[in-house]
């Protein structure tokens, strides 16, 4: 109670008491990294599974296999090898395939990598031929700085529409939608599952350093990246770009221009699990808030970015979640976010294990964002 009150005091704009990430369900304070890992982290993870994103019916399927889609090709002026691979799986309801594109710099040692969950059309945004060079996926810049650039289209895993969970990976592994429960996985969980299958492939690639892989997503892809990095600890860095409601934005912060849980569930009824519907216009009943999603990434690296014109994503709420997640890094003797005042545009905070910046401009994943992500990863 006292801790909640203090959190409230520290943030006048919070409409309701924010649950304390370091108080366990039994009311006991969590004061060591061991207690975080044994007690509190599993509790928080379970809350996000059961109340927000839903439970996956399967993690790495026994049927998973990788098949080349094309012969490897030298690209980026001969500086990188492009691989195109089908990540294939089958279940009781049929088969699915994610088409992954990877540009891997030629190097003497294994290279670090970024995996982009692309929520925009493939041809224009993640063109494997590089005829369209969109800053959404700046392959040439990433390769020049020594990073492998990987991307897949989220719609390969699960189409972004509400069809009653029959198409995409939902239909593959749970062909009978009537068998779904209030905590069955939604579409964001499905996309995050897809990013984890990309990591399964990375683990077969000696040219990529699997211990230095970041997962990146924008907007709905940013919500997905956060859930992926929170639930799959193989990712060393998790990057949320303009993720907003259901992503980095603290629900209990009073930001009238930003998206609410009621609105997101109404317009995108397939993104979250059915239990999440309970919290529309009822944020105070949530046993969690989004700072706890970021906290699940500790002690690994996290980065949250906002854009100055993107009020819909609730920029101060995205920032506030970083501040409130930081005590978990301190349990490991590390710093979370360094800086607790909302920064001016284009002044990145990158000293601790949580990075944050507010880019000048609109809702987008821009070259400026990528450059800051690379600075942080460097
Ligand atoms: C809509 C939605 C957001 C989402 C965004 C996007 O604006 O309300 O929650 O982040 O689409 O994915 O671009």
Describe the structure.
Strands 1, 2, 3, 4, 5, 6, 7, 8, 9 and 10 form a ten-stranded mixed β-sheet that branches. 31% of the residues lie in helices and 20% in strands. Helix 7 packs across helix 8 (220-231). With 378 residues, the chain is an alpha/beta fold. The relative contact order is 0.14. The protein is built from 13 helices and ten strands. The longest helix is centred in the first third of the chain and has 21 residues, at 33-53. The structure holds alpha-D-glucopyranuronic acid. Alpha-D-glucopyranuronic acid (GCU) binds next to loops.
Give a brief description:
With 378 residues, the chain is an alpha/beta fold. The protein is 31% helix and 20% strand. Mean pLDDT is 95; it is low at 1-12.
* SS summary, helix count: 13
Low-confidence stretches: 1-12
Outline type: globular
**Structural class computed from helices and strand pairing:** alpha/beta
Helix content: 25-40%
How far apart, in Å, are the first and last alpha carbons? 40 Å
In what range is the share of β-strand residues? 15-25%
Total strand segments: 10
**Mean pLDDT, nearest integer?**
95
Are any ligands bound, and if so which? alpha-D-glucopyranuronic acid
Rounded to an integer in angstroms, the radius of gyration calculated over CA atoms is 20 Å
Biggest β-sheet strands, sense, barrel: 10 strands, mixed
> Strand-and-helix sequence, N→C?
HHEEEEEHHEHHHEHEHHEHHEH
